[in-house]
Sequence to fold (937 residues):
Amino acid sequence: MSTLSHTADHAHHGDQNHDHPPFLAHHFDTPEQQYASSKLGMWVFLGTELLMFGGLFCAYAVYRHNHPEVFEYAHTYLNKWWGAINTVILLVSSFTMAWAVRCSQLGHRTGLCVLLALTLLGGAGFMGIKAIEYSDKWKHHLFPGRANLFNREYTGDHKPDEHHAHGDHPSPAAPAAAAAHATGDNHATGDGHAAAPADPHAGSASHAVLPPASASAAPARALNPVVFVDPHAGASDAAKIVPTSNGPAGLAQGTSPKRGHLTFADLATRDQVRVNTFFSIYFIMTGLHGLHVLVGMGLIAWVLIKSAAGIFGPTYYTPVDLVGLYWHLVDLIWIFLFPLLYLIH
Amino acid sequence: MSAISTPGQLDLTGTPHAPGSNYLNHTRGFLSWALTLDHKRIGLMYMVFVLSAFFLGGIFAMLLRTELIARGPTLMATKTEAWNLYNHMFSLHGAVMVFLFIIPAVPAILGNFVLPMQLGAKDVAFPRLNLLSFYIYVLGGLFFVYVLLSGVIYAYTGYQMPGGFGLDTGWTFYTPYSSSKSMSGVIPATFGAFILGFSSILTGVNFLASIHTLRPKNMGWFDMPLFLWGLYATSVIQILATPVLAITLLLLIVERWIGVGIFDPNLGGDPVLFQHFFWFYSHPAVYIMILPAMGVISEIIATFSRRHIFGYTFIAYSSLAIALLGFLVWGHHMFTSGQSALANVLFSLITFSVAIPSAIKVFNWVTTMYKGSIHLETPMLYAIGFIWMFSIGGLTGLFLAALSVDIHFQDTYFVVAHFHYVMVGSMLFAFIGGMNYWFPKMFGKMYNEKVAMFAAILLFIGFNLTFFIQFVAGAHGAPRRYAEVPVQFVSHHFWSTIGAYVMGVSLLIILLNWLAALWNGRPAPANPWGSNTLEWQTPSPPPHDNFPTSPVVTDPYDMDRWRFVSDEEGWVLTDEAKAAIAAGTAKVGKAH
Fold:
């Protein structure tokens, strides 16, 4: 409670009298009070961030509960190794961030700058890997929303050879993915990763392209077509037949190699048409998270510039501290996203 | 702590400090306002925009009521499927009123202006954030302007602007209509509401941090004026609920844009999930609207009854209880949406329980008035009107909380009347009452008391005429959101429309009275009402730094410290109070 602040002329917030440190805003009496306010405000803001993501986690829970097999099947399209590397990167960057805060408190300017730069690098690495993952999904038409390989209406408008398989995914999907080359696409053999022989009859029978089917089933699939159950389906849908090998979907369950290796054919028909929802949820959750990483990187860059100018020290390190808190939250959300999306069993 | 403790020679004679600058003339020029960090100026800027939104929403209301004045088309003749003008009108009325007026009105205008001063502080905790949330509000408002313009352009030229024209989904944006069928501007409107949400969140963060850290050392939590308790509870809801709305609207936008299949049943989505998400925010939002209004009423009732507020602690805790319970009742909007019976029963029970803290407040207000020396000045008229209408609005809420009754009342005018009694009859009355209460402090001018009282009474009559009859119509099954008037409800709707016109006239009188006061109102004394909260212990209008000398924190409802001086037409500290301050023995705190 300072009386000095009352006598000063506070024409602008930037005004300082000689007793005020330059960073102390005129409506605070002490740096401690200002720090406490800022910190509380940041924590509360982080609470709002958690609630915003909470809505998404809630949507995730609802859909995972309603369609557990969809999640178990579709998650194999995500590369868990990239996800794991990204997890490590973010954890390490959280560590460097925490260390940077300590450096700012101790007034170690060089250490602060180096550690902030490392944190920034971590963020960039994370986004780089995310870009690789996204472009891979893009390449395979695994978009969020209607435009997805698993959306019959979408794929029906495209030539089969536009969506090849996912053999380049080092994921449990590999067996199934390899079979995807047999989706009636004779060109598939040309690109070097077709595993199953293309069925010359399938090309016309299953004009629409199809999500990967079980490898063992491939040769027989044209004989036992299963039609998507769609109340809106008209006669023209004859061309959009989903092949499956072991007869109607559902019967194929017994043939799936083992748990965790569900194939598309193993899914119930009602789940087959829902697979694209997984990718929608994946893109929205990781996309919103990625946006937060980008914002965090911007904030770290801003703090880095100020640190280089030597603004922070033992008496004033609030921005470093708060940006650190934000960065830890971004990290924390990823810690939840990674297992929920990549490590489903 | 900024402004307290030095027992200054507080000399509030009641006369305005004629020479010297105040926050209005402190600096000049457009930029000195546009870039100001002063909470008082930001409050006034909010006032201009929020009142403009209110005016716009009011025009929609008048058009709606005019359409319903008689059977058959009156204003909105076209009945084509693509251009459901009436649907656009009620959607825009609801969306503009809720997102642009009711939610920000009391916190952003009155809260911004009063909160730091009631804390004896110079500003809110984060002044820059405060300005940012104002501009975010304006940006969000621009999206609604775009929606409106796109509708008008389509109506006159047939040209469809990107994003669709107008808004015809209702303010609730229910899926799947909003996500796949509607041709209206759902994306711009929801994106606008998304942006407005951030304004609300940032204001909440700011107020919460201010109340936590800017309180003077000798002002404990239970020494705060109750308006601050109302704002505190509001901030908690804004912080906890609004992010969920943000993500919901974001999901709705991507649903409509690329069809992600979260809410659209055609894509495997669950439309009821949207309702859950939406009401998880929008039901607590009802308490965002009413809690600060209750805070205003607590101030007014105590001041104009010249009595210490009764049951301070109960009023404070009931604010928090309402905020907490408000989060657990959203399901009562979906009694007929296919929720499980168990969920219905639980939501019904919790909804009933919200009545308890609400009733505690009403009881305390009435008890404060009991044996008080009641001064029927304008703000008090609004406060009494509030108690009347909040009681009706609250009690009819119990009808709707009852499962079996709600099935009959769902989507009838009974619901419309119920929430208008709470949102308009209660919140709007508290807002206008609060504006009248703090107007002298804001502008240093007194409005014409007689005109203001006349308008208050007229508004009360007009409001009850408009909406009470809707309870009757709704109980007989009058469906809401219909452009046509069913034959048995012709007279109900006729009188309701007449009431709406009366309301419109009285609101115009209120506005003109304020403008006239700005023009040539009598200079306001520092304390025109004899209230003991800190914002009255500085000149009207306050100086840039809020207080020329540090005010002394005392019990905010110790009305005996002030006496009326007819020469000054204002209240001044009693000699004993001055002596106590000089001696440093002024009774600190302990409001309860």
The CA atoms of residues 30 and 36 of chain B lie 10 Å apart. Confidence is low (pLDDT under 50) at residues 1-18 of chain B. The longest strand of chain B covers residues 562-565. Chain B touches chain A through 59 residues (CB under 8 Å).
